[in-house]
Amino acid sequence: ATPTAVMVGTGVGASQGVLIKGGQALESAHKVDCIVFDKTGTLTVGKPVIVRTELLTKMVLQEFYELVAAAEVNSEHPLAKAVVEYAKRFRDEENPSWPEARDFVSITGHGVKASVHNKEIIVGNKSLFADHNIAIPDDAEYILAEAEKMAQTGIVVSINGKVAGVLAVSDPLKPGAQEVISILKSMKIKSIMVTGDNFGTASSIAREVGIENVIAEAKPDQKAEKVKDLQASGYTVAMVGDGINDSPALVAADVGMAIGAGTDIAIEAADIVLMKSNLEDVITAIDLSRKTFSRIR
Ligand code: ADP
Ligand code: MG
């Protein structure tokens, strides 16, 4: 394509909310034959809501949620935001201040840790508790398994090294997500889901959206590894993601596409930004590239 055609293509993209960072990104997009999708915030709305709380210790909900929110308020993760939002209902104020959290640590793809009121609080997925040698009791395992079957994500909370509660979070698919995946199929583009979430929840969501290929419990570097593996098998790979944890994969991909509502780090790492945060624009970007680059060879 001529420089003028590329400029026109980039301009048309911008006018439709598809921000293309340079001619190379626009060019690469027409060769894409495989797309790796992140789950949370990419295929799903990314505004998860707490749908169940089970306390496994003698404690009132207000006290429990105060500790959990104080730890999670320091995290940018959508699940953390869901917890803090839910915790507000146990407070009188609209915008409550939470107790101070000391020694806050965010463990990417797993959860958070902090000390609140001199209690050690850990909030996250099962593997985080395995890493800390904290046993998950059978009743907690049962609640987690139930959640996964319903495509919900289970969150475990421990206080001073003992599991104190389990939360279930629901994060529905974005409207039109199924249609996008089926259109991509008709365009002979393979779709894969790569997520840090557990396999049970991930496969329930994948089944709903129509993706057959699922990689779960993937750490950020493993998301990038998957992209590189696919490239090594001959695919031209696009990665679509919204989180810090997606940035290495966004960089590794032939075309990194960030969800506009995503974190700044993902947006910086990407070649294309989908400003409207909808999945249809993955197709808009590829179409635009095909139109720009198929005429002139
Ligand atoms: P995804 O790839 O779907 O965007 P992440 O890699 O960000 O997911 O997170 C993987 C899993 O780690 C989540 O599904 C959740 O179980 C757990 N997790 C991560 N961050 C948090 C947090 N702040 N609070 C609770 N759980 C978390
Ligand atoms: Mg995400």
From TrEMBL:
It comes from the Eukaryota. It is found in: Membrane. Belongs to the cation transport ATPase (P-type) (TC 3.A.3) family. Type IB subfamily. This is P-type Cu(+) transporter. The chain holds residues 605 to 901 of 978 of the full protein.
